[in-house]
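Q: I'm writing a short explainer about Probable succinyl-diaminopimelate desuccinylase for a general audience and would like to include a description of its predicted shape. Could you first generate the structure from this sequence?
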Amino acid sequence: MDNTQLKQQLVDEVEKRKDELIELCSSLIRIPSENPPGDSTEASEFVSDYLKQFGLEVDWHEASEKMYNLVSSIGDESGKKLIYCGHTDVVPAGDLSKWDFDPFSGEVVDGWMLGRGASDMKGGLAGIIFAFTLFKRLGIELPGQLTLAIVPDEETGGEFGVPWLLENNLINGDGCLIAEPSSPLNPTIGQKGSYWFELEVFGEPGHGSLSPVAGNNAIVDAIAAIEKIRTLWDLDIHMPEEVRELVDISKRYLREVEEEREIFQPVLERITVNIGTINGGTKSNVIPESCKVQVDCRLPFGITHEEVSDYLKKELDSLGIRYSIRLFGFKSVANYTSAQDPVCKAIVENIEFVTKDEAYGVMQWASSDARHFRDYHIPVLQYGPAYLPSIHGYNEKVLVEDIVRCAKVYVAAVVDFLYETSND
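A: Of course. Here's the predicted structure. Afterward I'll give you a sentence or two in plain language.
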């Protein structure tokens, strides 16, 4: 049997067993795994038990209290190594009265899988788990190693999932696929950087009846500072030539695929600035002596954290205010994997194999665990089922057919990556 025939056999098996795949996804959604608080115990036990029923060994690694990383591998470890990665945690469901259905029901209605995590990312998680077991269940001997890494701590940008596994040398590979949500034909092969900071502006308290003559109002000074911070968007950033093609094709994607998002094209080349929270003052008749502002900036290719910090210092110093800046949360620079890397080609070419449509990789304007793999020189991309407008919102859902399609791509891509590249 040649590789194409093997791929088709695997794709056909996914189709034949799709009801089992969908039930697996439903079961995962029915397990609340909100982060915060981040307790992955129940979800991890379910995944481990599911894998063990097929004779697969699972290693447990507790990175923090009730945060478990699961690692399981099959195949020949002396060959090429491919990692399939997914996270069990989901963002909190929030106000349950704003949902049209139980966010933890895992129901299928009119072809839609419903519930928190359906798109981000229990649909993709079910797909990689199912694909992983299929090789074992069919008795297929892989010429390389396929590793399944199930992590607990992605949604808060925490350090107890992928970065912890990598730091402790518990996973390694020649390529990685993260089953994060994407569009059906466009995996994400690059992402912008992150620069989150808290600005604290200091004033002098006084009686509110004397403002603005008396005291020094920290909130007023913070407003002036915010206007300076927002000018980061206006910076003209020189983009390295080697990423120009990726940015241009990502713009094409916004124009031609997600047409309603065409307006977002400039985001790929500029620093975005979100003033996320403002906290200041004690009461209305007291001149505030402190105001804290938390800001989320995403950095395009062509600028560093140091350059952003230098710009902010220059602009804020020009105001003559008293302030401090503290970085927190996500910290990364823009990063990508070449579209010509074997792991990118394996996924993109098998999207085309399964769908018979043109596929290509694009950038995302947010951040994810992919950056950690690239820090360790592991080529990586993201591809998973999703109804993108519902991610992190109320009434999250995903099409059942998208879950099945992605699982077909996952099994086929293993063949191309491990079989064909093993002979290079």
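A: For your explainer, you could say: The two ends are 19 Å apart (CA to CA).
Q: Perfect, that's easy to follow.
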